[in-house]
Amino acid sequence: MPRYIQRKGSGSDTDVITFSMRSWEQVEKGLSSGDINAAFMDIAQAMYLFDKGSAISMLMFTHRAGSRIIVPGQIQRLADFKGKSVLIPHRFSIQHMLVHRLLSAGKLKIAGLGKPGKSVDIESVPCALMPEMANSDLDRDIAAFICPAPFGDAEVEKKGFRHLLISRDLWKNHPGSAFVVHQDLLKTKGEDLALMVSCLLDSARQLDRYMSAPNAAEKDIESMSASFLGLSVDQTQRALKTSGITYCPKFLVPDMEILNIVLDYMRTTMAVMPAGTDLNGFIRPEFIHTALSEI
What we know:
Elements: E1 3-5, E2 16-18, H1 24-33, E3 38-42, H2 43-51, E4 56-61, E5 67-72, E6 85-88, H3 94-105, E7 121-124, H4 130-135, E8 142-148, H5 153-156, E9 161-166, E10 177-182, H6 183-188, H7 190-212, H8 220-229, H9 233-242, H10 256-269, H11 286-293
Parallel strand pairs: 6-7, 6-8
Antiparallel strand pairs: 1-2, 3-10, 4-10, 5-8, 5-9
């Protein structure tokens, strides 16, 4: 069911309809067609869409770090990945970049670069389907899947799966998703966007405070998060505390230096991002700077 968030006492058309989508491909189509006005999406995919002509701007990171590489019981070391596949959320995803860095560090060939049967295949799969695919992998062809917390937690709690590592072990405080909007909204709904960024930042502060020193005053965060994610409170607690995710407000400010690290690696080392990608005008940090100044 869609969720509606209304600015109380406004009397103007400021309702925000929020809904989930099953894959990054759906988000891409929605933004490109104009059916979606704003989205929380992977930063690499957002940069790709902007370069391809989508009139979107990034207002803030929504978190940093927070993914895990999950493996079945028969995978004991990185060398066991050879000749198998790894599931990632999308070709243009931070998870793809992190897996590439891990495999390269382990001297493993990626599909298309090595001999058949000796390389590791990379397969894009919606996060919600990854646990099901890995659990039904009778041929044991899947070596691992990487996804943001809490996807995969239910499978990890079952016999046969475990966390190999968390993504901050590969890149501490790496970027993840970002809040992006159609540029038309910057002109027509600037005040409402400022309110949304302020609310998101306040939520981030509460989550960051809860993870560092939970207390009775913030217990509601557990139940709200569990309800939103469709998990138990215990599962939500573990996801927040064991994934390495951070909502520290200072890390949520758009940072072109960080974006260029991702862009350069995916453009040169991975050769998946187009050459000549131009991010001029992509970030709009004034919204979050204003919100931070009001704290």
